[in-house]
Structure formats: C-alpha cells, structure tokens
Amino acid sequence: MHRLRRGVFLSALVIVLFCAFALLAIRAAVANRKTGSRAGEDFSALRYPYQQLTVREQRLYDALYSGISDFETTIKLPGTFTTAEYERVYLMVLMQEPTLFYVQDVYELADEMHSATIYYSMSQEEAKAMGASLDFAASQIVNRLSSTQSEWQQLLMIHDLIAAGCEYGKTDHSSNAYGCLCEGAAQCEGYAKAFLYVARSAGLQVMCVPGQTDRGTNHVWNVAEIDGAYYNIDVTWDDDDAFNGSVVHCCFAVPDASFHDHTPDTISYIPPICTDSSATYYQKHGYVLSELPQLEAQVQSWMGQQTGAMTEFRWTDQISRSEVQLSLVGMFSERGYRVIMDDDRQVAVILG
C-alpha cells in the first residue's frame, strides 16, 4: 500500500598517460561534487546528523543523496526499510543537503520500502543552472573569509552577510538556500539552509535543526561547532523587521539555557547539547552589563564602539529586566530612540 505524503612513441605514451590522469582527476572532481566534499575529505566529517545514523541508515542516506544528485526518478534502496526508517532518513537528507533544493515536498511511502520514487520541481537543466548560481553566491561569501580568522569570526561573518543580503519573505524558493542567497528572500528554512551551505563550503561543522517555537509554530535554525563546543544560531530571528534593517546578534552562538523558545524536533536526529555560554556576541565583545549603576556610562561607551544606528548588549542575572528597561526608557525616550528587549536571551537592542 502506498501513501502520498508531502541528487615518436615516448611522446605519444606521455600524452596518453596525461589524458588518463586528467580523466581520473575529472571523475574524482565530479565524485567529490556529488558527495559535497573536497578531495581527501570524509563525507561524514561535516555532517553531525549523518554521524548519528547506523551503518545501514548511512547506506540509505548515501543512496538517496547520490540518486537525487543524479536526478533519478526511481532509486533502488540498499535493502528493505520500514516506513519509519525510510521517512526519517529521507527527511534528514532534504533538511541537511541544501544543494538538493529541486526536490518536491511530496513523497511516497509503503509498508516495505525497496525503492524510492522522487518527484522534482524543475527540469535537470534548470536545476544545474540554479545550482551554479547557488555555488557562485556561496563562494562570494566564502571568499571574504580569511584563514587567519577563528571559527567564531568566520561564522559571525557568514551570519551577518546572509542576514544583510536577505529579507524575510515568501517566494517559490523561500524555503531553500537558493531563495536566500540568490533571490534575497527567504523564510526560516531558507535562512538556515543557506547558513548551513555557506558554512559547510568553508569547512565548518553546521547542521539544520527543525523544530517549533514557544508559540507552537514550525521553525528551522542551526547548531554550529566552534572550537569543539556546540552553539545555537538563528539567523532568521536576528534579521527581524523589528530591527529596521539592522542585523542583531541575540541568537548567535547561544547555549540551550537561553534558547527555551526553540524546541528541536528529535524524530530525525537529536541535536548536540549546547551548554557553553562563552561564545555569545556580547561575551566576546564585552557588551555585558553586570551592575545597574554602570548602565548609562557603559551604554554611552558601547554606542561609540558599535557601528550603525543600533546598540545591543546583554544584562546578567544580577539585574532585573524591569530595571534595565526603566533605565533605558529614561535615557532614550525623549531622544527618538526605540528599545527592544529580548527576555529569553536577556538582550537589549537600542535603535536610533
């Protein structure tokens, strides 16, 4: 039963050998392009969710990824899989492989899965052309990174450039990386997949995390590895219209303790626990208010350090939200500034 649910003899010898090696190099390049890895790299190295699968499930993932990359409409599976097994891995492939943006959100399930029928939203020629545009857009960001930068600095630059080049909106491609990087419009899934794609292209460990917000709406964000620890990153929420076009950093490198309004969906995989709080934007730059009497002097200092018409900082547990808000309103209410408070992350954003 099927259910419809919504990848000179000596000279001649030298020439022959050269051509043979060139052909092997081309084939290797194509193989690396298909697997999304560079020469000599392990496919699983930058794919935390893939690492959580069993060997059998990894073979299924490989078969689906390879088949979809080749635009196969019917993919023979490496064995027989139950509905739950297949669906779990299939959805993981589509969530964690942003280059497969051309697959429809409709798929078939059977009690026993021996093969997979794949539905595409465009022709292979269209997908290749859009894929080239996506590669180019990602390279424009990656090329701005420096080998002298730390992982934290590289991820911060990727976060800021993606947010600056995109706005929240619904289009035909707003749920994938192409909409975010090439069209400049995306929803949360598009932001998250774009961040994943660019970061992975730069050799950084990032994954997409599907789940829900505290309001019960579906949402997608990222978890990234920085110097051996894991952190939550939500580019979508840092690019909110409420910030008047400014990019904030409330949700950059945040621990789970400050991410209660995000609940991951653990059906496909369980994201790593994020416990470290030392890599937040505010901790790294020293934009942390620990004593209320220092607020006015520190805010004035931070306004001189931070560029643009925005100042942001975090307050510690020693100070209450109401105290911070009351002080900021007293300072800025008559000067045309607006104050936004992020209670979950204890961040204040001053817009002027």
What does this structure look like?
With 352 residues, the protein is an alpha+beta fold. It has helices at 9-35, 48-51, 55-69, 83-96, 124-142, 151-164, 177-183, 188-201, 235-238, 281-285, 295-305, 321-332; strands at 2-5, 74-82, 107-110, 112-117, 167-168, 185-186, 206-213, 218-226, 229-233, 252-254, 262-264, 288-289, 310-315, 338-342, 347-351. The chain has a five-stranded antiparallel beta sheet with strand order 10-9-8-7-11. It has a four-stranded mixed beta sheet with strand order 12-13-15-14. β5, α7 and β6 form a beta-alpha-beta unit. α5 packs across α7 (177-183), α5 crosses α8 and α6 (151-164) crosses α8. The model is unreliable at 1-40 (pLDDT under 50).
Kindly list the characteristics that best describe this protein.
single chain; 352 residues; alpha+beta; four-stranded mixed β-sheet; 41% helix; 21% strand
Q: Summarize the biggest pleated sheet.
A: 5 strands, antiparallel
Mean pLDDT: 89
Structural class: alpha+beta
β-sheet strand percentage: 15-25%
Count of β-strands? 15
Low-pLDDT runs: 1-40
Please tally the helical runs, counting DSSP H or I stretches of 4 or more residues. 12
Cα separation of the termini: 61 Å
Strand arrangement across the biggest beta sheet: 10-9-8-7-11
Topology pattern, helix = H, strand = E: EHHHEHEEHHEHEHEEEHEEHEHEHEE
What spatial form do the alpha-carbon principal axes imply? elongated
Helix proportion range? 40-55%
Rg calc: 23 Å
Oligomer type: single chain
